[in-house]
Write a structure and sequence with these properties.
The protein contains 6 helices and 5 strands; from the N terminus they run αββααβαβαβα. It is of the alpha+beta class and 254 residues long. It has a domain of 158 residues: 60s Ribosomal Protein L30, Chain: A (2-Layer Sandwich). Helix 3 packs across helix 4. It is rod-shaped.
């Protein structure tokens, strides 16, 4: 009987103790779960923030890529356009050369030459065909050459004409001519004036310049070389403003 009473007294205590332990365990589990939830919330927030950042980066990157592609397309169009214009200029030069050579076919090849140098057409005329020695007065026989050249020039109104006078290195000894600079400019001016007054070439298209002996075609130490250097060159070229427009980049490519 006494034993039974002791058991009955101990049982509630054991039950209460066991129940307390279970409650403590559950509290720990709940706390752990709460911590896990907080961690998951923090991780989820970070993920959302990173996704937002990635969205911004992706949008910015996409816009940057699109801008780059547009720029490349514009550059490609610019290069295509430039290539087309250069090819057109080359075609004009070839047409000029063919027309000039056809027109001057009966002229002695030693006295006149037509070629493309530096992207422009050069018509080189020996001074013996145009002038007397040391003179800037054009010979009557030169009219046939100048008239043929003027006809071709007048067919290409969008081109400029630069007439260059050249001499050998032998100093001049004349009252009306100061030196080879003076002689080369006087001869170029005489040709320009002739083209304007007799053959109606627009003077606004022409430039007269002299280069004296400083741009030789051959060696001045020989008679043949000095003879080759005494020449007048008619340089036919695009207008400079058109040339610079040709090279101008679109604003978007600056």
């Amino acid at each position: 009987m006494r034993t039974l009473i002791i058991i009955l007294l101990i049982t509630p205590v054991l039950f209460t103790s066991c129940k307390n332990k279970q409650m403590d365990l559950k509290d720990q589990q709940i706390k752990l779960l709460e911590e896990q939830v907080e961690t998951m919330k923090y991780t989820n927030t970070n993920l959302l923030d990173r996704m937002a950042d990635m969205s911004i980066i992706n949008r910015t990157g996409a816009e940057s890529i699109k801008k780059s592609i547009d720029n490349i397309s514009q550059q490609y169009e610019f290069i295509e356009d430039l290539t087309s214009k250069v090819q057109a200029k080359d075609s004009v030069n070839m047409s000029l050369v063919l027309n000039l050579k056809r027109s001057l076919v009966n002229i002695d090849d030693e006295d006149i030459s037509v070629e493309v140098r530096g992207g422009v057409v050069h018509v080189s005329i020996a001074d013996k065909l145009l002038f007397s020695s040391g003179s800037s007065r054009i010979n009557p026989a030169a009219q046939r050459v100048l008239s043929k050249i003027a006809t071709v020039i007048n067919d290409h109104q969008d081109l400029e004409i630069n007439v260059e006078g050249h001499t050998d290195n032998v100093p001049v000894n004349m009252d009306c001519v100061y030196d080879n600079w003076d002689l080369s400019v006087q001869r170029a001016t005489a040709v320009v004036r002739e083209l304007q007054e007799k053959y109606e070439v627009n003077p606004a298209r022409m430039v007269a310049s002299g280069r004296a002996e400083y741009y030789p075609k051959a060696d001045n130490t020989s008679i043949a070389g000095r003879s080759a250097n005494r020449r007048t060159e008619i340089v036919i070229q695009p207008r400079l403003d058109q040339f610079f427009e040709l090279l101008e980049r679109p604003e978007a490519l600056q």
